Amino acid sequence: MKHRIEHPRGISAARALAETVTIPAVLFLGLLFCFPTAFHQPQPDHAQLAIAGRTVERRVDTALREQHPGRFDVTAVTDARAARQAVLDRDAVAGFAAQGGHAVLYVAKANGVALEQALTKGFTQLAAHNHQRLTVTDVAPTMRKDGSGTTLVYFGIAWNVPGYILATTLLRAVTFDRRRRLMTVVGVAALFSVTGFYVGVGLGFLPNAPAALAISFLLTTAVATFSLGMAPFVKHFFPLVGLGLYVVLSVPSSGLVPVPLLPRFFQGLHAVMPLGNAVDGLRGVMYFNDAGVLRPVVVLCAWIIAGMALLGLDAWRHHRVAGRRGAVAEQEDVPEPPVEDPSVEAPAPTALPVHPHHFGEPLPMLEGTVRDLERQPVHRAAVTVMDTGGRQLVRTTTNSRGEYAVTGLPEGCISVVVSHPGRDPLVHQRFLQSGVAVRADFSLRDRHNGTSAHAAPQRLDLDHAGHGS
């Protein structure tokens, strides 16, 4: 039997259309402006160069300022060995040394072949102008199958976006409290990290550097934890914020185009976004002998700490609300309200058909049975769920077994009103929390038995286990 759901009235078609297209429209504009801006004709922007010798440094700096203003920042080092080491230490994207008619350019293909080509082209012209023969030396070559030097970005995306999807699926797991959700994040992040790393090594895309396991684990954990933490605060904008952070802003600044070739705005994003920092950390442990790894690790840990802080703030907020309402006073874990993510769950409080749960279906947050005094099921009894302000959240009817089920309800106290023609209505109150499937069962009296609707006492039951009479 299908449940009849009464939707709120008074919402105009124009408003409904605006609410429907707002998130796709904002994401469309973000993708439209961010991706072409970052990826179209990348040029060096203040790329760091290490030049051997003060005299050569002044000559190179003058030439680069005239030919490529604003594209390179030049620093003098003692000799060719120091220039090469500056590239390995990731203090510079290239090193240059010249003596007589011979010049050497030190580059790192691990920083991206596009950057290597741009540097080689520029210094080839410079050496030719000075009548020198240029030798290009790659001090950090990539794996044979990673011809473009961008494979790490693809693996980073595989550890980044699923972290957000994991958070969205955990938000609909109403039988999971906050602790279980965090434990799931840790377990899934570990599984993704190990699987992705050994697949990459086995297929020849990644070098066998086990320290990369920690970076990939931190990336998935950071994205999933921060997403869980921000969800109660951004509410129905959760898909917009999540996709905006982890796709629209993260991918263009990730290093898919080498960071020194990006516009200044995306270079700034790269410094703070989890995906960009994870790619930096992976490059460090795989190709640069752990150089430059500390900062990305600190940034990823900061995202995790921020997510935990948001979870704690939300818990504190709901502890205060529960205490103010006189609800259950000592709860070790106060849940966050369900987030309306149209990609994974119902966009509003919704009645569910009552049948054995199928994989992928939303779980009920509230369920129960309506019977008469002889314990017989009451068919088509009206069940209305209201918030503390008396606003109707959802309305449905019981099936032939007297059963009903509802999901998508907000956290906190609700009132459940049951009525049926010829019977006295009853109201129960429940306190909803995640990790517990709340029940509200009813026994309706016939009016002709002598008990009026006005004489019947209201049932008030704040038992969070949800067992009504």
Beta strand count:
14
Distance between the termini: 25 Å
Low-confidence stretches: 1-11, 327-347, 450-469
Mean pLDDT equals 83
Total helical segments: 11
The value of Rg in angstroms is 31 Å
Largest sheet: spatial strand order: 2-1-3-4-5
The major pleated sheet works out as: 5 strands, mixed
Strand content: 15-25%
Helix- and strand-based class?
alpha/beta
Q: What order do the SSEs take from the amino end to the carboxyl end, as H and E?
A: HEHEHEEHEHHHHHHHEEEEEEEEE
Helix content: 40-55%
Shape: elongated
Write up what this structure looks like.
- The chain is built from eleven helices and 14 strands.
- The protein has helices spanning 13-39, 54-67, 80-88, 113-129, 151-171, 178-202, 212-234, 238-249, 264-270, 274-287, 294-324, and strands spanning 47-52, 72-77, 94-99, 102-107, 133-138, 350-351, 366-372, 382-386, 392-397, 403-407, 412-420, 423-432, 438-439, 442-444.
- A five-stranded mixed beta sheet has the order 2-1-3-4-5, with helices on both faces.
- It has 469 residues and is an alpha/beta fold.
- It starts with 12 loop residues before the first helix and ends in a 25-residue tail after the last strand.
Layout: helices, strands, pairs:
Blueprint: H1 13-39, E1 47-52, H2 54-67, E2 72-77, H3 80-88, E3 94-99, E4 102-107, H4 113-129, E5 133-138, H5 151-171, H6 178-202, H7 212-234, H8 238-249, H9 264-270, H10 274-287, H11 294-324, E6 350-351, E7 366-372, E8 382-386, E9 392-397, E10 403-407, E11 412-420, E12 423-432, E13 438-439, E14 442-444
Parallel strand pairs: 1-2, 1-3, 4-5, 7-13, 7-14
Antiparallel strand pairs: 3-4, 6-10, 7-10, 8-9, 8-11, 11-12
Helix pairs in contact: 1-8, 5-6, 5-7, 5-10, 6-7, 7-8, 7-10, 7-11, 10-11
